[in-house]
Design a protein that fits this description.
By secondary structure, the protein is α/β, with parallel strands linked by helices. The chain has a single domain, classed as Metal-dependent hydrolases (TIM Barrel). 43% of the residues lie in helices and 17% in strands. The chain has helices spanning 17-26, 41-53, 76-88, 109-126, 138-149, 164-172, 189-197, 227-238, 242-257, and strands at residues 2-6, 31-37, 58-62, 92-101, 130-135, 155-157, 176-179, 203-205. It has an 8-stranded parallel β-sheet. Helix 3 packs parallel to helix 4, helix 4 packs parallel to helix 5 (138-149) and helix 8 crosses helix 9 (242-257).
Length: 259
C-alpha cells in the first residue's frame, strides 16, 4: 500500500514524526510521496529527517498556486527554483504540486497560469511526472495541460474532487486520478461514482495529510496510516478485495513515479 501524496514535511508532524512513520509502517504502507514546497528550507530539512526514518519515501517538489504570487515578477523563476532543488535532491521523482486554485485566489490567476506553464515545461525537459492541484479551475487546468503537455506529460490529478467530466479529460490526457479521504465522506456520493468509473490501471490512493482525514478520523489530523481507509473504500467501489486494490494502486504508483 502506498500513500501517493502527503505533506510529512509539514510542521503538523514535527513533534511526533517517528510515531507517525511507525503507524504508517504498521498499517502496511510501504512508501509515500512527500510533497515539498520549492525553496522552503524548513520543509527540506524535515524531509531529510523523514527519509532517515523511512528510506522508502520519495519526494515531489514544486511551487503551489497559492505561492505563485511570489514569482509574479518572473514566473520562469519558479521553474528555476524548483528545478535546482530537484537536481539536488536524490529522492525527487516529480514536479509538484503545481496547478491552479481559483477558490482562494491567493495569487492572481494570470500569475498562477504562468507559473503553472513554466513548471510543466520543466517537467517535460526533465521527463518527470507532474502532481497537479486544481480547484474551481477545471477548464483552464485542462487547457494548459493540453497546450503545454505536447503528448509527453505523465502525471496525476491529485486529491480529486471534481466531476466525472474532469476525470475523463484527465484520463484522455494520459493522467492518473488520485483520491483522498473525501471519498469516504457521507455526502460524497457523486465523487464515489466518479472513483468507480476510473480504470483500475489509472487509480491512486492518497491522504493529502495532514489534511482531509477520512471517516472515521474526520476532523482530526490526517496521516499516511489512514490511506488504508481510502484503499478500503476504493476496493469496495470497484468490488474487489482490499489487498488486490492495494496491489493495483501500488503498481500504478511505481509505473508513474518509477521510485
Amino acid at each position: 500500500m502506498i500513500d501517493s501524496h502527503c505533506h510529512l514535511a509539514d510542521e503538523a508532524f514535527s513533534a511526533d514524526l517517528d510515531e507517525v512513520v511507525a503507524r504508517a509502517k504498521g498499517e502496511g504502507v510501504e512508501r509515500a510521496l512527500v510533497i515539498l514546497e520549492a525553496g522552503n528550507a524548513r520543509e527540506s530539512a524535515q524531509a531529510r529527517l523523514v527519509a532517515t526514518l523511512w528510506p522508502e519515501i520519495r519526494v515531489s517538489i514544486g511551487v503551489h498556486p497559492h505561492a505563485a504570487h511570489l514569482y509574479a515578477d518572473d514566473p520562469q523563476r519558479a521553474a528555476v527554483v524548483a528545478g535546482d532543488q530537484i537536481g539536488r535532491e536524490a529522492l525527487a521523482r516529480a514536479v509538484g504540486e503545481i496547478g491552479l486554485d481559483y477558490h482562494y485566489d491567493y495569487s492572481p490567476r494570470l500569475v498562477q497560469q504562468q507559473v503553472f506553464r513554466a513548471q510543466l515545461r520543466l517537467a517535460r525537459e526533465r521527463r518527470l511526472p507532474v502532481v497537479i492541484h486544481t480547484r474551481e479551475a477545471d477548464d483552464d487546468t485542462i487547457a494548459i495541460l493540453r497546450e503545454e503537455g505536447g503528448g509527453e506529460l505523465r502525471g496525476v490529478l491529485h486529491c480529486f474532487t471534481g466531476p466525472l467530466a474532469l476525470a475523463q479529460a484527465g484520463l484522455d490526457l494520459g493522467l492518473h486520478i488520485s483520491f483522498a479521504g473525501i471519498v469516504t465522506f457521507p455526502k460524497a456520493a457523486e465523487l464515489r461514482e466518479t472513483a468507480r468509473a476510473v480504470p483500475l490501471d489509472r487509480l491512486l490512493a492518497e491522504t493529502d495529510s495532514p489534511f482531509l482525514a477520512p471517516v472515521p478520523h474526520r476532523g482530526k489530523r490526517n496521516e499516511p496510516a489512514h490511506v488504508a481507509r481510502v484503499v478500503a473504500t476504493l476496493a469496495e467501489l470497484h468490488r474487489i478485495e482490499t489487498g488486490e486494490l492495494s496491489r493495483r494502486t501500488a503498481a500504478n504508483f511505481h509505473t508513474l513515479f518509477r521510485p
